[in-house]
Automatic annotation (TrEMBL), chain A:
This is long-chain-fatty-acyl-CoA reductase. It catalyses: a long-chain fatty aldehyde + NADP(+) + CoA = a long-chain fatty acyl-CoA + NADPH + H(+). Coiled coil: none annotated. It comes from Micromonospora avicenniae. Its EC number is 1.2.1.50. Gene3D superfamilies: Aldehyde Dehydrogenase, Chain A, domain 1. It holds the Pfam family LuxC. Belongs to the LuxC family. One of its GO terms (biological process) is bioluminescence. LuxC is the fatty acid reductase enzyme responsible for synthesis of the aldehyde substrate for the luminescent reaction catalyzed by luciferase. The keyword NADP applies.
From TrEMBL, chain B:
SUPFAM superfamilies: Acetyl-CoA synthetase-like. GO terms for biological process: bioluminescence. It comes from the Bacteria. This is Acyl-protein synthetase, LuxE. It comes from Micromonospora avicenniae.
Amino acid sequence: MTVRMRFPAGPDLPVDEVLPATGETPLAVGDERVVDFLTLVSRRLLAPALARRHPELGSLGFFLRRRELLRAVERLHEALGPQALAFPRGVVFHIPPANVDTIFVYSWALAALAGNINVVRVSPRSAAAADTILEVLNDSLAEADPVVARTQRMITYGHDDAVTARLSAGCDLRVVWGGDRAVNAVRQHPLAPAARDLTFPDRASFAVLSVAGWAAASPAARREAVAGFVNDAYWFDQAACSSPRAVFLVGDADRAEPVRAEFVALLGAGARDRGWEVDAAMAVEKRVGAYGLAADGAVARMAFPDNLVATMDLAALAAAPREWLGTGTFGFVTVTELAELVPFVRRQDQTLTHFGFEADELREFARQLGGRGIDRIVPFGAALRFAPIWDGYDLFREFVRLVTVEI
Amino acid sequence: MLTEVFTLRQSEKEERLRAELVELVAHHRRNCPPYDRILAALDTDPEPATLAELPWLPVRLFKTRKLASVPDDEVIRVLTSSGTTGDVSRIHLDRAAAATQSRMLARTLGTVLGPRRLPMVVVDRAGVVGDRRSYSARGAGALGMVNFGRDHLWLLDADDRPDVAALKDFLARHGDAPFLIFGFTFMVWRYLYEVARDHGLDLSQGTLVHSGGWKKLADQAVDNAEFRRRLGADTGLTRIHNFYGMVEQIGTVFLEGPEGGSLYCPDFADVIIRDPVTWEEAPVGTPGLIEVISTLPTSYPGNLLLTEDLGVVHGVDDGHWPGKRFSVLGRLPRAEARGCSDTYTGGR
């Protein structure tokens, strides 16, 4: 029962040697030694050569800048007030998704900043960006305080339930990404009585486009909005939980039709300009997905002008797909106002990307939803931007325990 | 070689098929509401000028949706195909469709087998047919074929080991006159070819009908030409007919001609190779995705199906039989998306 040591890079270790013997962390919340290390990592990630190769590492680099880290710590202390003190939870075991290369760093960095001992399972199927990040982490280690190497571990192992079981039993907090199946599989392995799970199950996301807002926007603003939408949709083959599966046009139905047509035209052009491609296998996948939805009666009209973009006019709002239908498959439906979406929204719904609305409209809509679904409402282009508040959790808060002192 | 079903030149076939398929599409639209909803959403032309313009379904749709054009109480058999991901196609046959498919399969194979049932070697084990109510793909293939022979020898024992003594015995009784061999391509290679070669058996009076693809033989560098060459040289077997077909178009097989190397379409069927970017028909010699066309399906809307197999047309009206001749080149890889889901699947 050994695991591959990815960080700190080294020979395979028996799983029992991955966790420190005592489980007591020598780090504090906002520990200067961790902040220094993350700052080093941030600088390397923001180096132009690297950012050109892996643009997604640039946003990670920004996220890890010293100023951002210190502000997160500061915000925590401010929110707590003088009666509560924050401490690390102890040992955090992270099981990030295989296919989204950077999630494991966000999840880990916040837990490390909170002073925890961390063990991160890096999937054996992880992509090139993950290897690059691990290289950066290992390269940064030379200049870091040795406590970092002693407390932070990134490992790779196959589908070995025994390893997962051992690490689950030894942690104080288990962070499980990767959807319902991953969560259910990992939950077969018990935690210690005082430990708990932080889970990220399957989610679905949508976009809202204001018909009036679109009409009021300049051609340049429209193109920019669509460029953002293209990024949201195509970066992870539209399969990221925060990638929009359907677009709700909000406004007058007659005026919505030309807006939709222009949006779709710009969408195709924008996706082509960015060099996205949909291969034959994916093109077939899209037909299977869209035809299936049509067979169910959910689609009034569908069109496949090329392999990049498939459009479906949904028969009703309730027909909007939550499941993945293949890269570049978009449902469209028009509603008169945002409030009409309220009965449609479920707990499962995560991100709503928006264009053309006033801030007050969106806030009012969020109030109407009352937290029953949709955890984040962000502009077109920001769907994939990781934030420390994710799926309704303030992650940094989840990574600390509180001690109260009353006089 | 007398044939009833490899007779039509391409232009005549296309016009006949187009007319019949326009009727069949209308029939399925009337009787299979999910199919009608798909075509309505696509806004398809009910009477297009060419075969290529008729609307096709992705064959995998039979794995995700129930598509039948007859009421449940008229379904006498539901065929299933196993997929690699565990999902299966479900093909609903009523009495008429079941009868038609076996009759047309018999006519097609009769072209190379002759009118009489021949003694038959099945390169599989008897148990593969199994439960008659729920067929596996391998079992259905074998079951569909056993009717074409008599005095069957099931070559493999329960542990999938070839029974050499039984094969020698079969050849002693039947090996001097025409006999039939059926099996999946890789099994024929592994269990029949190697055994026959190693024991110096004479298969020269046999006619081999085989199917299933070359993927499992690719690592041994065995392709169709090598398969034919080695069987001929080492066992004397030269009447070899590969065929291409799928449970979603049961009864329709595209059969390799006696000269080897090309598959031909029976008169009631055709293929269109589609460019995977434009989805237009690809020119002769240009590979693309195979659309299979058949007039046989009447109880489910499976007349026009886009497969996930790659193929190429070698020529039209220029081979042993008229019409298109083509090859299957392999399978499209399954589309895989990045994304947040489905990472840790544990031990299951």
